[in-house]
Known about the structure:
Elements: E1 2-5, H1 9-24, E2 35-38, H2 43-46, H3 52-60, E3 64-66, H4 70-82, E4 92-96, E5 110-113, H5 116-132, E6 145-147
Parallel strand pairs: 1-2, 3-4, 4-5
Antiparallel strand pairs: 5-6
Amino acid sequence: MQSSKSDDIQGHGRYEGYIKTLRKHNQLKVKEKSVIWFSTENKEKVISEDNWNGLEKFLDSHTAIVCYNDQIAVELMQLMRQHDINVPGDCSVVSFDNSNLSQSLDVKLTTVAHPKAELGIHAAKGLLSLMREKSSVIQDVMAPELIIRDTTKEKGR
């Protein structure tokens, strides 16, 4: 299961990476109904007590969720805890960003970190390049790092 933000490019990029990785590792076919899309405007409605029945049905058929970012993961984990769903015992949770939130709960969040400082350096160099040569094309790929903490368990455990 995956949650992704529909109204920004990061959400679509993270979803694309999720799909590519599943396919690369020969996982089951990705079902669109296994993706929760939300927007800036409706995020509070999606991860909320008011929507718990829908989320619970969704969680009943999944053993893991990849969240759009640490904030969504923390909010979902708090809601799951209120309903006695154990992370990672009942459901593993992974997110993106490696923000301070990833270590704010008792159960520390497994998260994908992107090299923030390196990203800033590349962005500044790219801007300088564009200022010198307006027709230049900038394409950078930076390797993310999976930081394994307490919200995931090995398959079969």
